[in-house]
Amino acid sequence: MSEAAIPDPAAPLTPSGNLRRRQLVSRLAELAATAAAVIAVAALAIVIYTVVARGAGAIDLDFIFTGYPTGVGPMLLGTIVIALVATLMAMPVGVLIALFLTEYAGSRASGPLRLTLDLLNGLPSIILGLFVFALLVDHKQQSGFAGAVALAIIELPLIARGSQEVLMLVPQGLREASDALGVARWRSVLTVVLPTALGGIVTATVLAVARAAGETAPLILATSVFDPKGFSVNPFEAMPNVPVWIYKLSEEGNPEGFTEAWGMSLLLVSFILFASLGARALLARSKRKLSS
Amino acid sequence: MSTVSPTAAAQVSGRGRRMSPLRKRLDLVGDRVLFGVCTLAALLAAAIIVLVGYQIVHGASAAISKFGFAFVYETTWQPNFGVFGAGSLLFGTAVTSAFALLLGAPIAIAIGLFLTLLAPRGVRSVVGPLVELLAAIPSVILGFWGLLVLGPFVQAYVEPTLHNTLGFLPIFGTPETTGLSVFTASLILTLMVIPIIASISRDLFQSVPAELQDGARALGATRWEVVRGVVLPTTSSGVVAACLLGLGRALGEAIAVSQVIGAGSELQSSLFRSGDTLASRIALQFPGALTELHKASLFYCGVILLVIGLASNLIAQAIGRRFSYQGATAR
After folding, report:
1. pLDDT category of residue B326 using cuts at 50, 70 and 90
2. Which among B133, B157, B191, B278 could bridge B301 via Cys, Cβ 3.0 to 4.6 Å?
3. Which of B205, B199, B145, B187 has the alpha carbon at shortest distance from B272?
4. Could you report the predicted ipTM of this complex, rounded to two decimals?
5. Over 60: is that where the pLDDT of A24 sits?
6. CB contact under 8 A, B252 and A125
7. What are the chain A neighbours of B89 within 8 Å (beta carbons)?
8. What is the pTM of this model?
9. At A138, which helix (H) or strand (E)?
């Protein structure tokens, strides 16, 4: 037994050597992970700050309610109409697909269908633009309807998957109780299952609309040659819309146009942020209610 | 049918009696109709995919028969002479997506780790949704921001710094004067890729059994060693799938890229020069395309994009499915 082997009992308990290095590495990794989160949140904050700071000055009543060059009313109206038409097409189909997945499909049918929905969700939006161009615009004319079809395809998988998640949370006991009372399947689906899940389905739809409202790529091919002065609610002609107008103004490189584009960006971003934040909160609430 | 009077119906459906035949028949029809309509909706989803594929290939048929497979690697793109080749676009797509993934994936995975292992509950419930909101910002606005804010910043500070310190590497060549470059486009794509990978990997990391992590901690592993030894190995294939989904997003982004990439059409080794991708070329040139061949060539770009996009998605799904299957059996 040599003297050196006995540690000094009064020495403070700090790690040394290998352990110290390992703890340092761990500490650095923690710092790096935190930094990554800070980077992402900072990027979001900078983008939103820029949009608010540069766009707020452009917005007043004239900006919202009059046409070009004083305002962007036609674009706002057009985007609302296009999104509305798209949702009217996508929502019924999406909910029916969700019903098929939860009420009818066995595991053999639901696997491929889910894969189809995922692939649909992964399609680049410019491809959908080419698709509606070939289907509805080529040799005819541009139309808000063509744009709405593309947006509906974007919304479809989102609505279907969102509704499916909520429908799966509807307690099996409700369906069984309905069956036990001798209620036909379709009646119990329409009067028991769907009403229970309605809140969740609506919020899933709102999320899908928030995603589709800012899509630009398909609209550039479907409805980009329009008159920015005229209010139009006819979806069978080219309709003014916000995303394409922002895109055009950004390509033009004219400072006044930039201000206008920032103003529209602010309107669009605030709609999307409020809709998706609100819908998320509601969705979480209705899921909690269903699963408790 | 019309002969059933209200009183008769009331009698038949009276207490203790069997269900009226009318109602029974209605239920039979109703069941079939609802099932049929749901099946039709499901088939419609599959039909859309097929129809999209058909229309894109059909639109490209003129270019396919004229240029054949050589279109994929030829680099000349001269609409005025009717000569088209997507080689440089494919190159630009590969470079921007790869760069975005190289930069974005580590950050996103780190965010996933931060959210599952480090952040206190309060921070987690704020930062998680904020990162996902990054995905909700429309690409046209992100591109517009990139054009007016990020581009000039990158051009003034980032590119000169990188060029002066790492300029011996050909990818950090002399900066251009506009800030519109492959580099800026990659940065914008990075911002789009991060939320996708981050939210998927967060869900993956949450699924790692707590017993495994506790076991490692009990053996004296540090937090980082738990991540390296337990969390990442058990989720690695899922993380790869998440990266592939992010890649699919980056490949197909047209608008934001077309706003900041500067629409060059030569093969460049430097990231600081302008370039173009398949998707952004379609967005930039399609509205002004005059000849049918030009349009067909842009459709051909769409075919390439569709094939790559579907492939990366399918591979990601296959990996993800295998992963979840393994996870299910392990439990």
Report:
1. very low
2. B278
3. B187
4. 0.88
5. yes
6. yes
7. none
8. 0.88
9. none
